[in-house]
Amino acid sequence: MLRAAWNDVKSFFREAPVAFLLVAGLFATIFVAYQPASLIDKGWSRFEVFQRSILWLVRGTAFRSIVGPLALLVSYGALYYGLRIRGRRFIVVSDFRVWGDLEKETPAKGVAGRLQDELMRLLAEMRATESGLPPERARPVSGSNARTGSPQPKPPLFPGGGLSLPETQVTLQYEGISLEGLHTFIRRNTGREVVVTGDLFTHPNGVLLVARTRDDGPWEVLVESSDATSLGLGLQKLALRILTTLAQGFLPREANTFVFLQDKARFLEEHELGVRLAKLGLDSASDEYKVVAKENVAAAYNSKGVWLAKRNRFREAAREFESALEFAPNYGDAVENRADAYKELRKQKNQRKRG
């Protein structure tokens, strides 16, 4: 029983907002500091030295000169938390470290600014999607065909899947001591802010973008070069990876959040990430739409298989089509594409025999 009570106390202090604890501590301190001496001094001689020392500390000029500004700061912090940041989220992009010769052509603030733009764009599109979920999107999707290479259509949005994105602001890291610095301190210590930082450096196959937060990452994207077009595409992929992770904890874990991000992964040909997002959407979908969500996972596997087949990687493609059929055994496109993949494998085997 005592252990359970102690666990409850620890849980309260772990989960209670920092602003609340600061205000409670301030009022407790003022209560102790300004009690009449008659309530404290009971004639206990063994504690007399200790009592006088405490009274000198809490009633002295030094304490009074500190408690006033401290009370103002804590009160402002509690008001700011309650009125401005409660229920909101903040993503702060810090300056990237640019290594080697890349620093001459790609300034660190430029990389951070472009990543901020990509995150803001994705969040803005998510909020636009939130305003209306067209019912015609809530149906099984048709897949891609390995022979024609037709693109996979958009994955379905689920009317019962939710998309209630909280107000989320993306900013750059603020430097210096000011009111904004105090706001940052409050947001960070109440779990309402996450800071993204990273590196940009050369790689044998191009340029590598790496990002991380205090608790998540690293996320890595390899691009061909540091020119504006390649770097822009890499930052789009990096922003997608970041929001995929944040949507599992920092942002609401909702089915349509993952479906929206899956659509972006499809557009960027990030098929591995698309499969992962489809599975997250399946886990978050309501029971009413589980069948649709499973077919969406199958479509993601099928799309990845088509992408591999177009690059003559038929053995890998066949495995993806098999995975698709595990989620939707009657998925027609995956059945046809699997047959085509095995047909191509047999053709390659016969060619090797003749050779």
Short structural description:
The chain has 355 residues and is of the alpha/beta class. The protein contains 14 helices and 6 strands. The chain has helices at 2-15, 18-33, 37-40, 48-59, 61-85, 102-105, 108-130, 179-189, 228-246, 255-267, 271-284, 290-309, 314-327, 332-354, and strands at residues 89-93, 97-98, 168-172, 193-203, 206-212, 219-223.
Highlighted features:
355 residues; 6 strands; single chain; 6-stranded mixed sheet; 2 domains; alpha/beta
Describe the overall structure:
The chain has helices at 2-15, 18-33, 37-40, 48-59, 61-85, 102-105, 108-130, 179-189, 228-246, 255-267, 271-284, 290-309, 314-327, 332-354; strands spanning 89-93, 97-98, 168-172, 193-203, 206-212, 219-223. It is an alpha/beta fold. A hairpin with a 2-residue loop joins strand 4 and strand 5. Strands 1, 2, 3, 4, 5 and 6 form a six-stranded mixed beta sheet that branches. The chain folds into two domains: 9-83, no CATH class; 87-354, no CATH class.
Number of domains: 2
Beta-strand content estimate: 5-15%
Global geometry: elongated
pLDDT < 50 stretches: 132-144, 146-151
Q: Considering DSSP H and I runs of 4 or more, what fraction of the residues is helical?
A: 55-70%
Structural class by secondary-structure content: alpha/beta
Oligomer: single chain
Q: What's the N-to-C terminus distance?
A: 78 Å
Number of helices: 14
Overall mean pLDDT: 76
Structural Rg: 29 Å
Topology:
Layout: H1 2-15, H2 18-33, H3 37-40, H4 48-59, H5 61-85, E1 89-93, E2 97-98, H6 102-105, H7 108-130, E3 168-172, H8 179-189, E4 193-203, E5 206-212, E6 219-223, H9 228-246, H10 255-267, H11 271-284, H12 290-309, H13 314-327, H14 332-354
Parallel strand pairs: 1-3, 1-4, 2-4
Antiparallel strand pairs: 4-5, 5-6
Helix pairs in contact: 2-5, 5-8, 7-9, 9-10, 10-11, 11-12, 12-13, 12-14, 13-14
